[in-house]
Amino acid sequence: MSRSISDRSYSAHPRQLQAGRKYIITFSCPDRTGIVARISGFLAEAGGWITEAGYHTDTDTGWFFTRQVVRADSLPFEVTELRARFAEVADELSDQADWRVTDTAETKRVVVLVTREGHCLHDLLGRATSGELPATISAVIGNNEALRGIVTAHGLPFSYIPFPPPTHGSARESAAATAARAARKAAAFDELAGQVDAHDPHAVVLARFMQVIPAKLCQRWAGRAINIHHSFLPSFAGARPYHQAHARGVKLIGATCHYITPELDAGPIIEQDVIRIDHGHTVSDMMRLGRDAEKLVLARGLRWHLEDRVLVHGNKTMVFR
Fold this sequence. Notes:
Elements: E1 3-4, E2 22-30, H1 35-45, E3 50-58, E4 63-71, H2 79-93, E5 98-103, E6 109-114, H3 119-129, E7 136-142, H4 148-153, E8 158-160, H5 175-198, E9 203-206, H6 215-220, E10 225-229, H7 241-248, E11 252-259, E12 269-276, H8 283-306, E13 310-313, E14 316-319
Parallel strand pairs: 1-5, 6-7, 6-9, 7-8, 9-10
Antiparallel strand pairs: 2-4, 2-5, 3-4, 10-11, 11-12, 13-14
Helix pairs in contact: 3-8
């Protein structure tokens, strides 16, 4: 059977919403002749007015990908019926089909996870306030109190979940102390998961959230949890990438927006950008310049995710920009 991944349906009546309301269909399956004709023919028969369409075949894997945008007011039925009808088309095309139908009239929800550094959070809050971000920020959750003020100033709820402080390389703990620390950390992640899942978010954004997400949460939030890493991955993964880059004498630094997976900093990449530097730049200079790249890369990657422009296959993404 095909696998349908759909957001909760929208209950408004057709033709009573804003003229810009769209339905977005994303679809992928093993490539073969006739896929484009079948999908476009199905939409044409229903009276669907396609306003945007993108196609791609990955020759390495033999998979086909498409994103179709249809005017909602051109169809004589609601999104729930569109999903039901398209399910038959998907089943006909492939028993391995992966697809989604979303409705732009549904407001998407974002939960942001933070620690101390606020540049990415400030940028996202500004974009959300100005209406530039196609979603609402439902909550901000931090493992430090440092950013509470800016969050509450925007009228948003801020939740603080304490995590045990990291141990230093030279510190020695007893086995009992190590076990107690691990238990406190596991309990903190359980609390975090409960609070995040209560919002049923379309995206969980790690905006410099300086904790390694455990594998079970990576799997639970697969395809929704988005991280900004202050490096042009796969170079300089892990901690202190600017220090690593400075020691290596690189001439380009960058940032990477990617989905999280159990393998640290190795998830499917959504967006990247770079900034040129030279031998005169200090680590502090690189961090200052890098923050600009981080903000822009995260904002672009999150927006494309929320607009259903990112299709994931294995550890690779197709981004229909």
